[in-house]
Hints:
Blueprint: H1 4-27, H2 33-53, H3 69-85, H4 92-102, E1 107-108, E2 115-116, H5 119-130, E3 135-136, E4 143-144, H6 147-158, E5 163-164, E6 171-172, H7 175-186, E7 191-192, E8 199-200, H8 203-214, E9 219-220, E10 227-228, H9 231-242, E11 247-248, E12 255-256, H10 259-270, E13 275-276, E14 283-284, H11 287-294, E15 303-304, E16 311-312, H12 315-326, E17 331-332, E18 339-340, H13 343-354, E19 359-360, E20 367-368, H14 371-382, E21 387-388, E22 395-396, H15 399-410, E23 415-416, E24 423-424, H16 427-438, E25 443-444, E26 451-452, H17 455-466, E27 471-472, E28 479-480, H18 483-494, E29 499-500, E30 507-508, H19 511-522, E31 527-528, E32 535-536, H20 539-550, E33 555-556, E34 563-564, H21 567-578, E35 583-584, E36 591-592, H22 595-606, E37 611-612, E38 619-620, H23 623-634, E39 639-640, E40 647-648, H24 651-662, E41 667-668, E42 675-676, H25 679-690
Antiparallel strand pairs: 1-2, 3-4, 5-6, 7-8, 9-10, 11-12, 13-14, 15-16, 17-18, 19-20, 21-22, 23-24, 25-26, 27-28, 29-30, 31-32, 33-34, 35-36, 37-38, 39-40, 41-42
Helix pairs in contact: 2-3, 2-4
Amino acid sequence: MTTGRDLLDQHMASKEEQREMDQRCGLIDARMRPVVKLYRIEQCVESSLQVKMGSPEPTSTVSIKQEPEDEVKVKEERLDLVLHLSSGFPVLSAVKGQRSLAKPNHHGCDQCGKHFTSKGHLTAHRRIHTGERPYHCHQCGSKFKENVDLIRHQRIHTGEKPYGCDQCGKKYTQIAHLKTHQRIHTGEKPYHCNQGGSKFKTTSVLKIHQRIHTREKPHGCDQCGKYFSVKSNLKSHQRIHTGEKPYQCNECESKFKTSSALISHQRIHTGLKPFHCDVCGKDFSQSNALNGHKLVHTELKQYQCDQCGSKFKSNVALVIHQRIHTGEKPYGCDQCGKRFTQLINLKTHTRIHTGERPFPCDQCESKFSVRSNLIKHQRIHTREKPYGCDQCGKRCTRMDHLKTHQRIHTGERPFHCDQCKSKFKTKTELMQHQKIHTGEKPFGCDQCGQSFTRMHSLKTHQRIHTGERPFPCDQCESKFKTTSALKLHQRIHTGLKPFHCSQCGLSFTGSGDLQRHERTHMKEKPYGCDVCGKHFTQLGNLRTHQRIHTGEKPFHCDQCGSKFKGSYDLIKHQRIHTGERPYHCHQCESKFMAKADLIKHQRIHTGEKPYECDQCGKRCTQLSNLRTHQKIHSGERPFHCDQCESKFNMRSSLIAHRRIHTGEKPFHCSECESSFTTSSHLRNHERSIHTQT
Length: 693
């Protein structure tokens, strides 16, 4: 039974507790009021959510139990509601710090000393030290430290995206991703860099950006030791060592190391160019291409090389340039070992091994391994020549062709041979020249075995076997194996002779003709036969001559089976079958099968006799006539009859003489039955007998 004394003691104790509480509340200053208010808001939200979900049933087990996904979503909604209702209060980090005064951190980690307000938080924290991942995905076997991470992961398998944007409808698996996305619409960038003033949508992007200032690269490759500021860059880099290409194009068989590379590649098929230049309106398929293009509109080059003083518009261009000085080639081919200064050059090179040509022409069947080659090729169809010379007006399809052309005006030859004193306008010409010293001929014909220093020379040579003549003249029916041969031929129609001899003033259609002519003045014959010692002005003439000794006749007529030592001899012979006479005299109606015959004929009209005898001064229209004449002075008669002792200074005289022994008379008179051994005898007969009658 409770006495009055007991009631009085209880009353006095409650009063004492009230006084102590009032004293404690007096210690709370104005800064603590938002914390108390925030705590009350959380209690209200907790109560409302318990009503929404129903009161949880008590459990006596300590085993880890997976929370329902609805409960996780409600927790995320509770956090959003708390943050929303607490807007207008001090910064959340400060609130959390003051809130710890109201809720002491009683739960401490015995390994690192960190304290937590709840035992659940401490348990989750300890898994960092133990490595424990008690939540398992039953579909792929992945493990997680917390149940909420497991539920988010499972949405990958289910495809569920419960959080939708109310402006564009895009959906996400996590509410944090939705909030980041919504900043695209609002333009909000709440995270500021305290060094450069840059602003970012997420803290993760801010942290990555700050590593530019700190130069921190925490993610290291365990194979080559290279470090990266972003973990995703490390993963992409490691695929260089493993060769893994997990992203495949569903329209072709191309594979890629990163999803971004796949997305960029797919724009080749779709033709999508989503990046627009707001200055000139040009569209690009990749953002880095747009950024590089924008530098065209600005003259600012703020990145300077400290070794040579060259300036660049981007830091990337400077880094690539500096590899010229350091000799660094960080990108290596895992098939042949060749190394490159740029990753794009390595990618292009690997297509040599794979045979991949991902850039097709939409007008013909050509395919290319590099997009730039496709663009250059398409100018054949469009006939576009965007690069013009400001001195002569000539236009080129490529910038490098224009630069090479401009060296004609400047006389610049920046590429030097380190073995001789030769200089060249282009690096390609230098590399071709160096093969003279090394004797290298890497390109071989699979039909006749002949080797060449250049791939282009091999392709031209192979047309001898195939008979292909892809370059037709638009004024006559002639066709040619090379564009250079077509250009020389077209000068027959135009009469253009741009190459002039500085000694005698003669003009020529081709530079090779001029060089051969100049050797007549210098008496130069640089190409000698190692069998008989005969010398020639042209290398081709020497090779043709050497076939006299070897008996080789590699050029065959497919109509009659005749064989020839030189390709030009075959061409001239084939005109017998076709009746083609492509060389026309502009002063009369004469036509000729060979250019040399036309030149000889034209001397009838001009009266030119370029070949002079150095003993008597007699001049001849043909070199062969001069050589025959010189035998008069030397008394040389190199052509012997094998049936008698007669000797002759000309092969034609020997042939005519042999008809005396054989009785052959191949020249017949058209008006009587007389026959003669030589054409000159026939002409004398016709003049003396038939013209008199």
